[in-house]
Design goal:
Helices cover 17% and strands 42% of the residues. The chain is an alpha+beta fold and 168 residues long. The protein has one domain. Strands 1, 2, 3, 4, 5, 6, 9, 10, 11, 12 and 13 form an 11-stranded mixed sheet that branches. Keywords: Signal.
């Protein structure tokens, strides 16, 4: 899971290249309230709010949009031309060196549910994930053994909304 936490700065830096793009931006949130008592949220318009022990503030940055090229989960990208609508990291610590947290990514893809599901299945298997069907989506474990679920729902004939959650 720590790898996912390290992914955010890279994702954020890469996404800055897409600042002030057309359409809605990506909503980000980091919740480390269980460990560090801190939360950071950014809405799709670039409004950032930080709450931490001894500090609270807000400021505005350029709107950031994350698309398929900017996202990578252990070598698995989003379906081509997809756009991330929400990106959430929740930290946690189970003690004794064990990490327990979650990453949740909501996205929209320009293809049918069946096409997006097959694309993810093939990409995940190629990267060593253990994958099985779960309704219209997928579930299993990553190449590192973290549990994941991929929920997919149609949003018109050639559009899919998805939520990818990874717990480690």
């Amino acid at each position: 899971m720590r790898r996912f936490a390290l992914l955010l700065p890279v994702l954020f830096a890469g996404a800055l290249a897409a600042c002030n793009g057309t359409g809605p931006g990506t909503n980000f949130s980091i919740d480390a309230s269980g460990e560090d008592n801190a939360t950071i949220t950014t809405d799709g318009n670039g409004q950032v709010a930080i709450k931490a022990e001894g500090f609270q503030g807000s400021f505005k940055i350029p709107k950031v949009t994350i698309n398929a090229e900017d996202f990578d989960l252990n070598g698995v990208k989003l379906y081509p031309k997809s756009t991330v609508t929400d990106f959430h990291i929740a930290g946690g610590d189970t003690g004794a060196g064990g990490s327990q947290g979650a990453v949740k990514v909501a996205f929209e893809s320009p293809a049918s549910v069946a096409t997006v599901a097959q694309w993810f299945r093939d990409a995940m298997i190629q990267r060593g994930f253990k994958v099985e069907a779960d309704g219209t989506g997928l579930k299993g474990t990553t190449d590192e053994g973290d549990r994941f679920t991929l929920g997919l729902a149609g949003d018109g004939e050639q559009k899919t909304k998805g939520v990818l959650e990874v717990q480690g």
